[in-house]
Structure formats: C-alpha cells, structure tokens
Amino acid sequence: MGTVADRLRATSCYSMIPVSSKLVVFETRMKVRHALTVLVQHGVQSAPLWDATTQQFVGMFTVTDFINLLLHYFYNSSLEEAMQDLEGLTIRSLKALQSKSGVDVPTISLHPLQSLHEASRILLENHLYRLPLVDDTQNVEVIVSVVTEFKILRYIAENCQDIPLAKKTLRELGLGTYKNLKTAGPDTPLITVLNMFVNDKISAVPIQDENGLFIDIYEKYDILLLTKEGSSTDLSIPLSQALAGRSTEFAGIHTCSLDENIGNILDTIRRMTVHRFIVLEDDRCKGILSLSDILRCLLKS
C-alpha cells in the first residue's frame, strides 16, 4: 500500500478540493477595515490577495497583518487613530508600508495539479499555515483554493489506512514542544501576548490560573474581536476581558496526554476542526502539539 508520503505524492491538490466549496479572495484595493469584517463573518484567518491591475495573485492578507498594524500604532500613536485609519487604508497601501518597513510579504503559491506531498513540503519548509493554489496554465492566474496542514492531515486521516505509527504515543515519538513554552495568566495584558505572537512566531498562548492549571487559550484569531462594534481598543486590558466577546462558533480547545497515540489524534482531526492540541499532565499545560509536528512525523514514517 505504501507510506503516507507515497500516498501524498500520488495525490494532486486539485483532487482534494470539494465540488462545492467557499473561497474568500480580497482585491488589493479593498479597505483593510472591510477585509477584517469579512474574515470575521466567514470565520477564516486569512485570504489570498488578487491584484486586478496585473491580474495576478500577490500574497495573503492575514490576522498577523492586523496584529502588526496594532503594534505599530500602540507604540507610535494610539489605537483610536489606528481604528480611524483603517476606514481609509487599503490592503495595497498596508502591504506597501510593510514592504518599506522590512516586513516579509511572502507570495508563495502552488499549481493545483502539484501533489499534496509537494504542498506539505512547502508548508513545512516555509513555516506556513496555508498555501494558495494558483492555476496559471492559460497565462492568466486563477486562485482556485487554499491548502492547509489541517486539510492535508484530514485527508490522511480519511484515506490512509494501517499507518505504522498509529499506535505510537507522543511520549514514544517525542512529538510536540515542551521546552520554553510561552504561557499567560487571565490578568496578562493583551499587548504582552500580541508581542509573543510576533516575536516568538507562535499562533496561540495557553492561559493558566494562579495554581498553574490550564484554563483557556488565546489564539491569533481572537484579536479580530477588537473589530466588533463597541469592543475595547485598549491593548492593555487583561486576557480575561479580551476573550469575553468570543464567538459561540469558537472551534474549541483540543487536549491530549503524552500517552495519546497518533491514531486517536488523527481520528479527532477526521471528526473535528483542529488547530493544535494542548498536551496536559495533571491539568497542567505540559506542551503543545502542532499540526506541523504531526504532518512532519507522518511524512517521515
């Protein structure tokens, strides 16, 4: 039957695209404020960018763009001014400012007929969460879909049987991150966590109570709560207040133990939307198992 890597090499990204699916794409002249609203409405953290002038894919608009903008205004002027400027600032202008500031603006994409293995390689090597699929066979670029680590892992969970590592535990494989974990408390200022996202290049921070017990998590996507009407624009507020308006559509927190096996992990991914697993020991955050960790492990098996 072959390995997981063999199966992914034999499967094109195109074959994984649902017959009926939703794809959010932003034109670069769109106002940043409107783009953020659309992200919230559709429950997505990013969208491919299309330049109508050049008829080309030109990058991604992500929650990180918003975080960088907030940090810039926090340290240089005010959040009130940031929210005012969002009304007139276009995505194109924002990307131009980032480029001048030396912020990396990746424009990596992949043809949909390339394999899932190639998509996995690009995602892992470039530390990307998502990869746009762009068809340019007719000399005109068409953004077809976006492939993510989660989508690839769900494909593996649904289509790859008898995975050799299925009965191996996280402890046996040494899978996950357990050293130098970034954590916070309910009273930690939001600005502290935003700096962690940017400086440590992480996408979520576990929240612990005064006894060190795991109680919640703050994800990058949660920052979009600030775009809701009536929300506080004070980045010094504690995380407990920052999370007060979290949507009921929140995907939830997935936890596991060091003795959880890969088969059970994949079964959870098959059934639910997962961004990461919090590894708990005696209700304390022992570590974090990322989707990158899982995908990298399966490709090597």
From TrEMBL:
Residues 16-81, 98-163, 177-235, 247-301 form the CBS domain. GO terms for molecular function: ADP binding; AMP binding; AMP-activated protein kinase activity; ATP binding; identical protein binding; protein kinase binding; protein serine/threonine kinase activator activity. CDD domains: CBS_euAMPK_gamma-like_repeat2. The keyword Repeat applies. GO terms for cellular component: cytoplasm; nuclear envelope lumen; nucleotide-activated protein kinase complex; plasma membrane. The keyword Cell wall biogenesis/degradation does not apply. It comes from the Eukaryota. InterPro entries: AMPK_gamma/SDS23_families, CBS_dom, CBS_dom_sf. Keywords: CBS domain, Repeat. GO terms for biological process: autophagy; filamentous growth; peroxisome organization; positive regulation of gluconeogenesis; regulation of invasive growth in response to glucose limitation; regulation of transcription by RNA polymerase II. SMART domains: CBS. PANTHER family: AMP-ACTIVATED PROTEIN KINASE, GAMMA REGULATORY SUBUNIT (PTHR13780), LD22662P (PTHR13780:SF35). Belongs to the 5'-AMP-activated protein kinase gamma subunit family. This is CBS domain-containing protein. It comes from Rhizoclosmatium globosum. The lineage of its organism: Eukaryota, Fungi, Fungi incertae sedis, Chytridiomycota, Chytridiomycota incertae sedis.
